[in-house]
User: Which sequence fits this backbone?
């Protein structure tokens, strides 16, 4: 590591903050050049890699912990040097990274976005939606109803192949159930928050609904190569990061990546049942963050 020549050891005292450590790095960084800091960081990571390889081969090295601690320290020194050269406080990096980790890996909690709204502007906490097919000359279309009242428009796949996209409203129901959020479902159920003009415009308006539809299409277009998200590992962090960037300006940004993952997995599990059975009932439970499929009880002719 590059160190200032002749600098006395001023780090005998225990450091309490990232700021103290960063000041020490700035004081002991002799050259203060970005290229040197970057090359040093890459070199130290290479040394760390070699050490881990050595451990795997030897398996028993009493001094390994001390050596590993030293390598971590060298990596941290160069990383901090690089951050200082770009005038980024280490504390700021740590706080931003902690917030990011929480948003990506925390299980989250139930958020009621419309808690303060009038009762007729709140999403129902529990309801059942019936999906049913009706034949057309060129295929089938799907309608949905709640309490035998049709809501929304009849949908077809709008595709050359039968890919089941006519059932895609189930994805919006999954967002409503797990995230407590869906501008699309709010519009269908006529519970937009019109008493607050700003919320009505920003959170429940056309732009938010378009973003939600875009997310549904993004996820759907990758569904075949991801085995219809039957395996939890198929919903990877890259996809979840993209979704979170898309909703960064909306209230749903408070929901974690794990909640989005649950919404996708549950939505596609029910989607597969709907497509397989040609329709059915979907139970939406916001309090349990759950979406469930069940066979339709015999109904009257529509």
Assistant:
């Amino acid at each position: 590591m590059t160190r200032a020549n002749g600098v006395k050891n001023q780090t005998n005292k225990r450091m309490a903050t990232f700021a103290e450590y960063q000041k020490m790095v700035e004081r002991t960084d002799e050259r203060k050049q970005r290229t040197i800091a970057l090359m040093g960081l890459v070199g130290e990571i290479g040394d760390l890699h070699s050490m881990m390889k050595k451990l795997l081969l030897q398996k028993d090295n009493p001094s390994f912990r001390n050596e590993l601690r030293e390598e971590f320290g060298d990596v941290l020194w160069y990383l901090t040097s690089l951050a200082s050269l770009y005038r980024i406080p280490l504390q700021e990096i740590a706080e931003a990274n902690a917030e990011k980790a929480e948003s990506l890996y925390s299980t989250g909690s139930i958020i009621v976005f419309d808690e303060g709204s009038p009762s007729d502007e709140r999403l129902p906490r529990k309801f059942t939606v019936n999906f049913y097919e009706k034949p057309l000359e060129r295929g089938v279309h799907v309608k949905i109803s709640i309490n035998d009242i049709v809501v929304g428009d009849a949908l077809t796949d709008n595709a050359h192949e039968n890919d089941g996209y006519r059932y895609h409203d189930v994805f919006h129901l999954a967002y409503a159930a797990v995230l407590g959020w869906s501008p699309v479902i709010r519009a269908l159920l006529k519970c937009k928050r019109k008493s607050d003009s700003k919320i009505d415009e920003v959170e429940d308006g056309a732009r938010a609904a378009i973003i939600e539809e875009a997310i549904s299409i993004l996820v759907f277009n990758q569904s075949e190569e991801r085995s219809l998200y039957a395996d939890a590992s198929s919903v990877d962090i890259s996809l979840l990061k993209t979704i979170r960037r898309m909703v960064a300006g909306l209230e749903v940004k408070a929901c974690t990546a794990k909640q989005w993952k649950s919404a996708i997995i549950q939505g596609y599990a029910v989607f597969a049942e709907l497509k397989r059975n040609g329709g059915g009932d979907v139970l939406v439970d916001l309090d349990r963050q759950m979406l469930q499929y069940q066979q339709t009880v015999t109904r009257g002719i529509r």
